[in-house]
Amino acid sequence: MVKTYRVGIIGCGGMGRSHANAWTNTGRAEVVTATDMNAEAAARLAEEFSLPTHYTDPHEMFEKEELDVVSITTWQSVRAELTIIAAEAGVSGILGEKPMSGALGEADDMMAACEKHETKLAIGHQRRFMPQNCEARRLIQEGAIGEPQAMLRRDGEGLLNRGTHEIDEMRYILGDPEPLWVIGQVSRKTDKWERRVRCEDVCVGEVCFEGGIRGIYESDLPEPGLRGDAVYGSDGQLRRGADGTVELLNSKVAGWQTITPRQKEPNQYDEMIAWLDGEIDENRSAGRHARTTMAILMAIYESLRIKDVVKFPFTTRANPLDLMVEGGTLPVFVEGRYDIRAPFPEQQT
Fold it and tell me: Strand, coil or helix: what is 175?
C-alpha cells in the first residue's frame, strides 16, 4: 500500500503557504497541522488549508500530532532550534528553507541531531531541480566544455538571502566539488539586516574548488556588471539560454549551440518523498550540501575577519559578520538599523 505522509508546517508566512500547497499537490502527502509563534498566522494557514489543528508551540504540536515530515519555513535565526526539536520528536524527514541557518555552528548542530535520530534533512535550494541547471551539470560531466575552470555568479541583497542560492547553484552545476579555500571582501557601513540577521552592504568572494576550479561571486557591487551565468572550461563555455535552454560553445561545432534539457526533473517535494520511500539514495538538496554552502558563505565573511585566505575544512561556529560588528572591527558609520525583508518596528512609523 502506498504511504501518505502526514506533514506539519512550522512557520505560517508566505513560504509556509507555498510549502503547504506543494505538499498537497504531490498526491502523496497530507498537511495536517501547523505552528507559528504568531497565533493569527497559524490560524490563517489552518483555515486556508482546512487543518483540524494549529499551534503556537512546536513542542505541543509534536506531543499531540503523529507527523512523518515537517517543513520549516521560519526565518533562519531560529531554524536550527526547530530542526533539532523536530529530529528529537522522531519525524522521518525535514525540509527546511534556505539559508540552512544563521551560522555554521547551527548548521552542524542540525546535521548532528538529524544523524543521531536518523532524520532525513533537505534544504530548499530548489535551483538544483531546474532542468536548465541539471542539463548544464550533465553537459559538464560529459566533457562538453572540457575541464571546467571558472564559474561566475552575480546577484544582490545579501549572502544569506540570495547568495546562498547562487553559491549552491554554482556547486551543483559543477558537480558539487568540495571547496579548498576562499578569499573574500565585505563592506558594511550601514546597519543592514535581512530577516533579523545582519547583512552586508556589498561583498565579493572567490572560491577554489577541487581541481582548481574557481567560483567567483559578487553581490551588490557597482555597475558595470559581469554576466553572472557563465561557466568556462578548457574547451568551451556554457551559459543560460532563453526559455530554459542552455547555450554551449565548444570546438566541435562553429558558433553557439542552443540545447533543450533532455529530461524533466522532479520538484523538491516529490524527491523528498522518493527519498523517504527509499527509491533514491539521497535527495540532491540533502543537508550535507547546504552545510557546505553555509561554510563557503561564512568563509567569505571570515576572510575579512582574519584578513587572509580561509582554508578548508572551515569550522568557525559563530557568524564572522556578527563577530566583527559586535567586536567593533566593523563599525556602523550610518546609524539606524533597517531590515530589507521584514521592516523593524521603527521602520514602519
Answer: coil
- Sort 63 into a burial class: Cβ within 10 Å, 0-12 / 13-18 / 19+: exposed
Q: What is the pLDDT of residue 228?
A: 87
The residue assigned the cell 557597482 is 222
> What residue type is 85 in one-letter code?
I
Tell me the Cα Rg of the chain: 21
Question: Rounded to whole angstroms, how far apart are CA atoms 75 and 73?
Answer: 7
Write down all domains in the chain, each with its CATH number in brackets.
5-126+268-284 (3.40.50.720)
> What strands, in cross-sheet order, belong to the sheet with 246-250?
253-259, 246-250, 236-240, 231-233, 148-155, 214-219, 202-209, 179-187, 310-311
Query: Is 0.85 surpassed by the pTM of this model?
Result: yes
Each residue's pLDDT tens digit, 24-69: 999 999 999 999 999 999 999 999 999 999 999 999 999 999 999 9
Question: 253 versus 129: which is more confidently predicted?
Answer: 129
